[in-house]
Amino acid sequence: MSIQITVRINKNGKENAPRAFASAFINEIFHVDGIKVWQNKTGLSVQMPGYSKKGSTGRTFYNPHFRYDAESAQNLLNEEVLKAYKQAIAEQPAEKEAEEQTA
Fold first, then answer.
1. CATH code assigned to 5-102
2. 98 pLDDT exceeds 70?
3. Cα separation of 53 and 9, whole Å?
4. The whole model's pTM is what?
5. Buried b vs exposed e over 46-67: b needs ≥16 C-beta within 10 Å?
6. Distance (Å, whole) CA 75 – CA 73
7. How far apart, in Å, do the first and last CA atoms of the chain sit?
8. Is residue 74 over pLDDT 80?
């Protein structure tokens, strides 16, 4: 069975926040909302939706709502999210030009 992933990107222009939020549709069966695209020192990274809680030692743990059974599945989903984000960024100047021409 092949995996088909469709990603929808919502860009975020705020400082010190995710660069974008994404939704992924996997084989038109599963829908994952709340995926975040972050910019860090090593480049872009993808974070699955989840929650954080403090342990008994006071350390904060991140628990994702969405887990992978195989690293290859994680890589595939991350690649598709980042590809969609980069495409949305590339289309951004064209959107601004179209808005300026209609104003």
1. 3.30.1120
2. no
3. 27
4. 0.78
5. bebeeeeeeeeeeeeeeeeebe
6. 5
7. 48
8. yes
